Amino acid sequence: FFALAMNVKMYENPILKGNIEKLKKYGYKFIEADEGLLACNYVAKGRLKDEKEIVDEIERFFLYSEIENYSNLLSGKKVLVSSGRTREDIDPVRYVTNNSSGKMGYSLAQAAVDLGADVTLVSGPTELKEPSSLKKFIRVNSAEQMYQEINREFKDTDIFISCAAVADYKPKEYHNEKIKKAEGNLIIEFVRNKDILFEMGQVKEKQFLVGFAAETNDIKENALKKLRKKNLDMIVANSAFNMNSNENAIEIIKKDETSQEFSQKSKQELAYEILKVVANEINNKNKNNK
Ligand code: CTP
After folding, report:
1. Are 48 and 5 in contact (CB under 8 A)?
2. Half-sphere exposure at residue 259, Cβ-oriented, CA atoms within 13 angstroms
């Protein structure tokens, strides 16, 4: 592993970039530098990553290097991930949202990078740090903004993993001024947001669609309904009570409705398991088409 730290001009030098690419081919790993104050007093890219993040990268390596053919498993694949909650504004100071931390989606985006994919992450509000080496990172707030971004990226995507906890409803009206309290109750009317995954299921061509179902009850039954209704290739069923946790237990249900259970593990470990199943399904599909 090389953890990079240097002057920004050197960092951007094509000779250095070429040498890094060469070394990557021999199996060396590079931990990109952060932006920040450099020793030469510039504020730019070239600052050594935080120690914790360097340790995280190395720890992840010990997880994914166990996977057979890990560096090529998703190489050349364009992966689009949606993650986090959405925020639906009521007035300039109030909004409705949900409990999703975004950890599963961020772990999946990072795992897809680790397994060689070009990854775009569309994220609603979260407190998490951006995964490293993404191709594109797009921040949004509302479900409508998330829909616009996903819709734009979708055509040029091989695998779409819809992990975001998208609000199903938004306030019918946005108040430009703060709502003042008055006598009696306040009633806010909500209208439906687009179901982003359902919409993508209607227009999909080559894309492999993975949905999530976070349920409080009848987990498998509800997940199966969503798999069929949204025209998915796979759905990951899990308990909504794990939304904010670092760990989860899941059941992966495939289009043919066979399923595989994974017991309680870290979300990062589960992310590799999910992507292994996805890669396997895509390979089988390609073999059958030949
Ligand atoms: N989803 C989406 N857009 C929405 C709602 C959900 O893209 N407006 C996606 C989620 O990212 C997830 C899947 O659909 O992959 C299932 O989301 P979930 O909230 O579990 O289910 P809903 O379809 O919203 O159904 P319900 O809330 O009635 O359980």
Report:
1. yes
2. 17
Same-domain pairing of 42 and 88: no
CB 193 within 8 A of CB 143: yes
Active site members: 40
Note whether 11 and 122 are same-domain residues: no
Q: What share of the chain is helix, strand, coil (3-state, %, to 5)?
A: 35, 25, 40
Distance 239 CA to ligand 1 centre (A): 14
237 in the same domain as 136? yes
Domain that holds residue 87: 68-169+186-289
Domain count, the chain: 2
Amino acid 180: pLDDT: 96
For residue 242, pLDDT beyond 90: no
Please give the Cα distance from 5 to 218 (Å, whole number).
51
Percent of the chain with pLDDT over 90: 92
- Confirm whether 104 is domain-assigned: yes
Nearest CA to ligand 1 atom 12: 212
